[in-house]
Amino acid sequence: MNFTNLSVKVSVWLLVLLTMEASRAERLSEKLKTESPLTLAEDSRQHGDAVRGSILYTSPKLACTQCHATGGVDLAGPNLTRLGEQISDVDVVRAILTPSLSIRKGYESTRILTVDGEVLTGRIVSSKDESLTLQTATPGAPAITLKLADIEERFPSKQSAMPDNIVDQLKNRREFLDLARYVMQLTAMDSTGSPSSGTPPVTTPTAGQTLSPELQGVVLLNEFNCAACHRDDLPSHTTVAKHAPDLRWTAENVDPHHLLEFIAAPHVTKTGTLMPDVMTELSNEDRQLAAKQLTHYIVSLGERDFTRQDIDTDAAERGDKLFHSVGCVACHSPRDESGRETLPGDSVPLGRIPEKYSVASLASFLENPLQARPSERMPNMRLTHWEAIDLASYLCLDATNEWNYTFAVDLELAAQGQKRLHELRCVNCHTEQRLTPPNDPAPTDLLSLSEVNPERGCLSDARGTWPQFDTTSEQRDQMRAAISRPSKKLSDRDQIAVTLTAFRCLNCHRRDELGGIASDRDTYFQTTNPNLGPQGRIPPTLTQVGAKLKPTWLRQVLVSGRAIRPYMQTRMPQYHAENVAHLVDQFAAVDELPAISHGTFTDEKATRQVGAQLAGTDGLNCIACHTFQLKQSANMPAVDLTEMAARLQKDWFYHYMLDPQRLSPNTVMPTFWPQGQAMRDDILEGDANNQVEALWLYLLDGRQAATPRGLVQEPIRLLATEEAVMLRRAYPGIGKRGIGVGYPGGLNIAYDAEQMRLATIWKGVFADPAGVWRSQGHGVVRPLGDDLVEFAKGPELGKPQSPWIVDDGRPPHHQFRGYSLDHLRRPTFRYSLGEIHVSDYFVNELDATSSAPMLRRTITFVSDESEGQVTFRVATGKSIARTGERAFEVDDGLLIRLSDGHPIDLVASVPGQPSIEELRVSLTISKSPTVLTIQYIWGN
Questions:
Q1: Which residue did the predictor score with more confidence, 339 or 10?
Q2: Positive or negative, the Cα torsion across 24, 28, 31, 32?
Q3: What is the pLDDT of residue 193?
Q4: Residue 599 in domain
Q5: Looking at the 3D structure of the chain, how many domains does it have?
Q6: What tens digit of pLDDT does each residue of 685-697 get?
């Protein structure tokens, strides 16, 4: 039995157990519970920073705003600004540390078991004779209404909905004091002096409603383009009707065989198509002939033949990710791994894409949908050329080669097809180069929409000489309601609702009670930065957008697709001006906010300076979360401060700053003026309006605004004094198992514990750890100082029979065994290669000859068995020159001396790297210690 290995394993398990026990003992919540709540309350009041606490309060790791409102509406937890004198500082401390100790009346949790076996937990917000409403603590989840008959059992829970271990998400006691201080500030507020007191929330808690039947009917009349055949004498509106695809584009980009099938039987070929069947009176034989004639005519309009391309599976894989992230699934059904649509019933159908398009033709459409469909119900998603190819490759994955793609146009059939196009009145909806555009009004001898008999024709269930549309009974009822609507003009508010519904804007956005993301599509809206919470992935509300955005900016958003949220993966589409520009004026006419007074100043220059102070770390610390002049903050890339004044209306800015949750419930934006009272009462005498005005004047400078304090962070400098200093983190060229050591005298190393090698040495200041300390441990330590020397990757010790593995991974036969510290905290690193055990120790010295700074490295090798020859790689370089019997200079810089007793080999050309030389030492390892000493000396 190998007792050495057993000893190592036991030691490892003991270390694991001790670490687990230490982590339990070091929980912040347990530490704080040993202190008196009164002491914590007093320290929070005296030493806590409410501004820092506000950032913690809204951070995703705590997510306090998901359950506690500071304005607007009550959520799962109580509104903290309404507690007033009912809660003391000590109560605040206790509520944060032990939330289940005392639960406020009305906010007790109830657990409900439904007859279907579902278990729900939340706060009962209302109860009626036949139902109750439950507000769960799930972030962003709406209240749930349950029928009492569907409830099997309900019983109160003694556990608070607030997590018991929420304090353990904080780093230290100081953060707890900051958080408690901010909560104390919130609970101390009352409604006096609030500029927005008494005004209703701008956004309502309910969403997902749709248009009235009459307005939905107006949308459908546009979608089916009824005015192409009827005089439109219905209520006027500004939404452009949906026109059919351009036939010349179709000729070159749609497979002729698919086109033939579609014309012959549109509703069979593509379920849910808006294309009517206009050949219901023809026999099957005549129908097929007409379809053939029309196909030959349409294909004759093109200047090039339709061709197919092979599918690139890598591109298709990228396209899959695009399809399910950039916004396609807001309208179209998501797909599972087999390509099956998972939500076909509530989605815009795509039909048989692989049969209809080639990769090239579909990519052309996706890049510029307007060229084929000018009414833009399919918007421009601002795809790059390569993204369009990737997405087209994914959607065409199931393409087959069952058809012979050689399609020769028969000119006689094409001539007959042109006549058919007019006879069947296809020209009413379709355009091509030789036809009159369908934008011209329908002939005056046609029946007007208000005179249509809903019991006959397109709106009836009967079949006749009229076109047959694939409509549901609900759709027909809605169109009948629109036709019978007495009003001749839609209001601006109704016009907006009709346009947003027609263009499916409400699939992503919410406006008042309309629209919003469906729950079964919510997971497809993602962000690159989870720290921003739901606002980082959910498109912004359109409620009061006319009062929020300046008209010029709003037009740029609609027409140019201007975006300010690069972290949001769902893209804002780009529309043509004639289709959506009317929304700018209509939003402005409808949306308004309650009047609000502005702060006043006589010295604008001094006021801007105060605004810069408020934006920086010595004010409200806006810079901690917001981008500034395109430079992202350390915490999260919230919208750029220098674009705000160009985007936002001043009154909206005031309302939002004074009460952000009223305009945007559950935002991660902290409340700095709860109930109108300034948290920084030492700036501008605590006048909320004057502070907001100072910020506004500062932001008016845009890109020219003075840089606020805290944007440029000074480097953190770690220095070794009388003892060595160590920092275990990622270093350049090393993974997360880097171990940096700064030695007294200004010499430093970075050791790679993943590959058992010396990675870097340098002189001067040790390191700047800001990259890891300020980024939650995910960054890289930056070596400071100068004369940095990097060594080759791969383990230094190797056997002739198992050559070095030079890559970024862990070598298979080496194992790191940890380190120990001497009295000056200098480490001895330990690792093993098979039965060979290695200790590696560095000491800082001065060279006795030149007095230059020097690192002396002592490496000791011991084997459990006689191992024979091994090789140690000392250095690599473009040039290694011998300067003495056992001295070498690497790349005209670093001098290396080697101890006696071991053969040296200077390899002129490393395999795979012919221009690199390598210095090696051959060692004979036995059960007795073998020592190799290396001196690294910098020149003057």
A1: 339
A2: negative
A3: 35
A4: no
A5: 6
A6: 999 999 999 999 9
